[in-house]
Amino acid sequence: MNSVVTLSGRPMKLRTMGSGSPLLCLNGLTQTTANWTSSARLLAGFGHQVLLTDLPGQGGSEPLPDGNPKAQAELVFEFLDVLGIDKIDVCGFSFGGRVALQMAALRPDRIPRLILTSTSLGAGTVARLVVMGWLRALDRGGLEALGWDALPWIIGDGLLNGIDPEQMVHATVRRNSAAGIRSLIQGILDDKAPALESIAMPTLVLAGGDDRFALADEQRANAERLPQGRFHRFAGLGHALPVEDAKGFSEVVSAFLRA
User: Fold this and answer.
1) Cα distance between residue 102 and residue 91, in whole Å
2) Which of 18, 9, 14 is nearest to 83 (CA)?
């Protein structure tokens, strides 16, 4: 079901699938709710009510004055308040994982379980340099230049070998605005992630074994710092786990939520 929620005059898309325990899935940087479709359908089939939305700056929506993950997290709580949802499990992918982590730090009483998927928390020098390069590519050549620059970092070899990369780049251009994505990239660079030791709820960290951006070893180390952290590595997959293996991803997520 598709609808629109208005927050202080700001429209936010809402897609829901399934019924049961609610699960909010937050998009990666240049993604929209469309990128969750396969995984969301599978999760709905496992008995979860999946909620999807485009964060401000995604999908051509108006960016926030400050696009950092903490500001996004505060807005997501307003979004949930309008929906009348008090507690909800949250699964964030990449940039969405940063937002999910900030939500867990701000209101741990409202997030029973947390899932961080392919989430680089800025600990790695390479990841930060890559993001800085994306910002320069965007300023130099717009969304198309960013799309080509980001593609080998965010899509694993298995999927890259089976798709038309030009179509993926064109989808990024078609679905987003340069101003919106620029605000989110700057937000990543300005992000101050909360101390992982302070995140007390059960947290599942998911990593692709071949992820070139959010390295699996770094994500394993992050999981070990979480008081109730668990780690799962998907062998042979890259960064975009919910897209590269929707079935495997959904099975692992659902098993964690039902444990």
Assistant:
1) 12
2) 14
**Amino acid 156: pLDDT:** 84
Instruction: Give how many domains the chain has, as a whole number.
Output: 1
Euclidean distance between CA atoms 195 and 85, whole angstroms: 26
Q: Among 59, 130, 55, which residue's Cα sits nearest to residue 98?
A: 55
Q: What are the strands of the beta sheet with 114-117, ordered from one edge?
A: 2-7, 10-17, 48-53, 21-26, 89-93, 114-117, 203-208, 229-234
Q: What is the DSSP string of 73-117?
A: HHHHHHHHHHHT----EEEEETHHHHHHHHHHHH-GGG-S-EEEE
* pLDDT (0 to 100) of residue 253: 98
Domain that holds residue 190: 2-258
- Give the span between the Cα atoms of 18 and 25, in whole angstroms: 13
Q: 201, 226 in Cβ contact below 8 A? A: no
The partner residues of 16 in beta bridges, in order of sequence, read 51
Q: Tokens 């947390």, residue?
A: 114
Rg (CA), the chain: 17
Assess contact for 205 and 226: CB atoms under 8 A. Answer: yes
Taking 50 as the pLDDT cut, the residues of the chain under it are: none
Residue 45: helix, strand or coil by DSSP? helix
Helix (H, G, I), strand (E, B) or coil at 236: coil
3-state DSSP assignment of residue 243: helix
Query: How far is it, in rounded angstroms, from Cα 145 to Cα 139?
Result: 9
Beta-sheet pairing, 229-234 with 48-53:
unpaired
What does the alpha-carbon distance between residue 7 and residue 139 come to, in Å, rounded to a whole number? 30
> Which residue's structure tokens are 């990841």?
127
**Residue 99's closest CA among 48, 134, 64, 149?**
64
User: Residue 122: its pLDDT value, please?
Assistant: 63
Q: Give me the CATH number covering residue 38.
A: 3.40.50.1820
